[in-house]
From TrEMBL, chain A:
Coiled-coil positions: none
CDD domains listed in its UniProt record: BTB_POZ_SKP1
Domain SKP1 component dimerisation: 109-156
GO BP term (any one): jasmonic acid mediated signaling pathway
Keyword vocabulary terms for this entry: Ubl conjugation pathway
Keyword match Oxidoreductase: no
Keyword Transcription: no
Protein name listed in UniProt: SKP1-like protein
TrEMBL record, chain B:
Entry protein name: F-box domain-containing protein
Entry annotated with the keyword Coiled coil: yes
Swiss-Prot/TrEMBL keywords: Coiled coil
Coiled coil spans: 408-445
PANTHER family xref list: RNI-LIKE SUPERFAMILY PROTEIN (PTHR31293)
InterPro entries xref list: F-box-like_dom_sf, F-box_AtFBL13-like, F-box_dom, FBL60-like
Pfam family, one: F-box
Lineage, top ranks: Eukaryota, Viridiplantae, Streptophyta, Embryophyta, Tracheophyta
Superkingdom in the source lineage: Eukaryota
Residue ranges constituting the F-box domain according to the UniProt record: 25-78
Length: 161, 667
């Protein structure tokens, strides 16, 4: 296995937290700043790179994103933009958060941005009660504390219940 | 698997059980601060601040947001409601304070504030300081009024960042800067006043010029601006600058807030050429004391007439030096539409009557030859300068007189009281002229007359005004009466002949020199017919009051019975001051207000019925008060409905006679 990677520098293997292995082309893997740094710092002796925080389903999505962006030339920005907006469409919150974590961990800025943007869009213009519900945020304020926070930031709460 | 490779991730492996999230878990709150901040960065400032209420985890996450964008408009919709609930708190400014104060140690990349209400400058400074302390890269302030002074330590730190000023509603901008930072002024479309004080600092003119041009381009819609020496210096060679100097299409007033010196000529020429509507040029600091005239000064003035609206010129600290005279000569020759030139004298000139006359003599032929027309002084332009040790009105008045033939060069430094009254008179004249102007405009509109007619009309006005201050000898008799008629005082009623006593009193005033500046009188000759118009009669009122001030003690010896009769009669007019003087007289004699007011025929139109305006037991009656009241009766300058009985007239005349006699005794 190790020799095959060394002989064929174009491929490397990534292993998800649940043990699944993914064979990826090097230029696709380079979309991740983390992997890039690893390869640059002569870690190529590793035949398999484990990604212990990322499950197979998420890693598959991440690599799909990386492949698209690595293969597309810079002139196809419009095409990439439509891919990005399609990419996260209809994705459930669980998958989205896993994607954010993976993108953050693997340092894939483009993916992190679109995922964070998607989460921000969900929060935007919604009353906090609804945001709490969507994200299952547990309200650990006492009613008095909550009122105080609201009062302090009253300006931002204009027009919200 | 290689352990070495794994080492960087080993700490994360402990968390590996938590990496995937199922339904019903608080997924978002378990994200790292960095990820959450990243998410917040995609939210508006308001939205991210609102996340503080989700849970404790979120309370202060927003304090690290790098882009702060607060817009008073979005807040103002609820403005009134909030003000009702708590008038002093929750104002937009308070909120900005809070946001900037609570910001954590991280950088603020961008601060954008749209402020609708004027903000206290100290507070604004504190916001800008806070932004700079957080290494702000882009500061965007929208303000109604702005002062930028980067010589203060605050801005010294801001040199690395670009400052963009976008202010469509900005009316006043004071910009004092060494221009080390990059200032972008844009969207400043409604600017009226700008004060631009740019300093070179240690930059070379080549470096600073484009920045100056940038600033000037930003304020090119300004109507009135004040510029400094360095500003002019930096635009001396506009040919070298890409884009060149912008045009100032609306600029009517330009003030040089520096002593004018030859090296500023180039910059000034450039600025004048780009100001097609300039009407008023003000050398507010006069000439540089070492100024010598050279060809450049002449060059400039030959180009001035290209400003076809250039009507007014003002020069401060005028000393009558050769350089100044040379300049004025050129100005008068070249500025063909110049209507008014105001010279503010330095004491060195105004206290030296010989020199002053010489200057007058030098200026007169130029002004006449160039058909230069003097308007009487417009107090709007000069009143704010009265506090300075200059004598604007004084000189103007004299100049108006001097240039029309009669040279008044007496030293009147102490004569400020009289001047004050003359000023009042002038103001009245000015108002009347304005009315007349309006009428003229209306007439013009009806006639649809062309520009030529318009300017002719204007000339007539100027002439009539000029005649007002002119000597009889110069303006012909016919023209004079026309001029007087044009003044349109109250109504063209016929003035009754003055009583013998009044004529004596006026003659006395004349002899005592109280009409020294009254050029409606023939020189050195007293003619009582000159008082048969409202102008002359008003002049008497002021002269009498001045006389009263100079001869206070006479009041003590006046006949009390006559004075009391005058006092008990009522008020001679509805003018506030006249009423107060009459009330003063009544107060002196202890006459109750209601006993007089209840019988008074003027009561329906009086604002001070039954009011006692003098308090205390003031037993000193000034002659000023007496003179004011009795001259009004003597001149019959009373409202038409007020009938003055003969016994009153007799009392007034007796008092006048006494005043004249006593004055002779005292003298």
């Amino acid at each position: 296995m190790a020799s095959s990677i060394e002989n064929n520098n174009e491929k490397l293997t990534l292993k998800s937290s649940d043990g699944e292995e993914f064979l990826v082309e090097k230029h696709v893997a380079l979309q991740s700043t983390l992997l890039q740094n690893m390869l640059d710092s002569d870690c190529s002796s590793a035949d398999v790179i484990p990604l212990p925080k990322i499950d197979a389903r998420t890693l598959a999505l991440v690599l799909g994103y990386c492949k698209k962006h690595a293969d597309a030339s810079s002139s196809k920005q419009g095409e990439l933009n439509s891919f990005d907006s399609e990419f996260l469409k209809d994705m459930d919150m669980g998958a989205l958060f896993n994607l954010v974590l993976a993108a953050n961990f693997m340092e894939i800025k483009g993916l992190l941005d679109i995922a964070a943007q998607k989460i921000a869009d969900t929060i935007k213009d919604k009353p906090h009660q609804e945001v709490r519900e969507i994200f299952h945020v547990e309200n650990d304020y006492t009613p008095e504390e909550e009122a105080a926070v609201r009062e302090e930031n009253r300006w931002a709460f204009e027009g919200f219940p | 698997m290689d352990d070495v490779v794994l080492l960087p991730f080993s700490k994360h492996q402990k968390l590996s059980k938590d990496v995937t999230y199922g339904e019903g878990m608080d997924v978002i709150s378990s994200l790292s601060d960095n990820v959450l901040r990243h998410i917040l960065s995609f939210l508006s400032t308001e939205d991210s601040i609102r996340t503080s209420i989700l849970s404790r985890r979120w309370q202060y996450l927003w304090t690290s947001i790098s882009d702060i964008n607060l817009d008073d408009i979005s807040w103002s919709k609820e403005n009134d409601k909030i003000k009702d609930q708590c008038p002093m708190c929750h104002r937009f400014s308070d909120f900005v304070d809070r946001v900037l104060l609570l910001h954590d140690a991280s950088d603020i990349r961008k601060l954008h504030l749209n402020i609708l209400d004027p903000v206290n400058s100290a507070r604004l400074s504190s916001w800008i300081s806070a932004a700079i302390r957080h290494n702000v890269q882009e500061l965007n302030l929208e303000l109604p009024r702005l002062t930028i002074e980067d010589d203060r330590s605050l801005w010294a730190d801001a040199l690395s960042c670009a400052v963009k000023v976008h202010a469509p509603n900005l009316i006043y901008l004071k910009f004092a800067s060494t221009l080390k930072g990059h200032f972008h002024l844009c969207g400043i479309s409604s600017l009226v006043n700008a004060s631009i004080n740019l300093l070179y600092g240690d930059m070379s003119p080549q470096d600073v010029s484009p920045r100056v041009i940038g600033v000037l381009a930003g304020i090119c819609n300004v109507k009135s601006s004040t510029v400094s020496a360095d500003t002019l210096l930096s635009i001396s060679d506009v040919e070298d600058i890409v884009g060149g100097l912008p045009t100032f299409p609306n600029m009517t007033d330009l003030k040089l807030n520096t002593e004018f010196s030859p090296d500023l000529t180039g910059g000034l020429i450039n600025l004048l050429e780009k100001s097609p509507k300039l009407e008023f040029l003000d050398f507010a600091q006069g000439f540089d004391s070492d100024y010598f005239h050279d060809y450049e000064g002449g060059l400039m003035l030959e180009r001035v007439p290209s400003c076809c609206c250039f009507k007014r010129f003002s020069l401060s600290c005028f000393e009558g030096k050769p350089a100044e005279m040379h300049f004025l000569r050129l100005l008068l020759k070249n500025a063909t539409v110049l209507l008014r030139m105001t010279l503010y004298c330095e004491p060195i000139l105004s206290e030296d009557s010989e020199k002053e006359e010489e200057v007058n003599n030098q200026l007169r032929p130029i002004s006449l030859s160039s058909q230069f027309q003097h308007e009487s002084s417009n107090l709007h332009d000069t009143h704010d300068r009265n506090s300075k040790p200059k004598k604007p009105l004084h000189l103007l008045f004299k100049e108006a007189v001097g240039l029309s033939g009669k040279i008044e060069v007496e030293n009147e430094v102490e004569d400020s009281e009289l001047k004050k009254k003359l000023r009042k008179l002038e103001e009245e004249v000015r108002k009347l002229t304005e009315n007349r102007n309006e009428r003229e405009t209306l007439k013009k509109l009806v006639k649809k007359s062309n520009n030529g007619d318009g300017s002719k009309e204007l000339r007539t006005i100027t002439k009539s005004l000029h005649l007002l201050f002119a000597n009889n000898d110069v303006g012909g008799g016919g023209e004079k009466s026309e001029g007087m008629a044009n003044l349109g005082m109250e109504d063209p009623r016929l003035y009754k002949e003055l009583s013998r006593e009044m004529v004596e009193f006026v003659t006395h005033l004349f002899e005592k020199g109280y009409f020294r500046d009254a050029n409606f009188l023939p020189r050195n000759k007293f003619d009582v017919t000159c008082f048969e118009n409202s102008y002359g009669r008003d002049f008497v009122k002021y002269a009498a009051e001045k006389f009263g001030k100079d001869n206070r003690e006479i009041a003590k010896w006046l006949s009390a019975s006559d004075l009391k009769r005058v006092a008990a009669f009522g008020c001679p007019s509805l003018g506030r001051k006249n009423i107060f003087f009459a009330k003063r007289l009544r107060h002196f004699f202890g006459i109750q207000e209601d006993t007089v007011c209840s019988k008074c025929i003027l009561k329906p139109s009086c604002k001070y019925v039954n009011q006692s305006v003098w308090r205390g037991d003031n037993k000193n009656l000034g002659l000023v008060v007496v003179m004011r009241v009795i001259t009004l009766y003597a001149l019959e300058s009373v409202p038409p409905q007020l009938v003055v009985p003969d016994e009153m007239k007799d009392s007034v005349n007796r008092l006048l006679k006494e005043v004249v006699n006593l004055s002779a005794t005292v003298a």
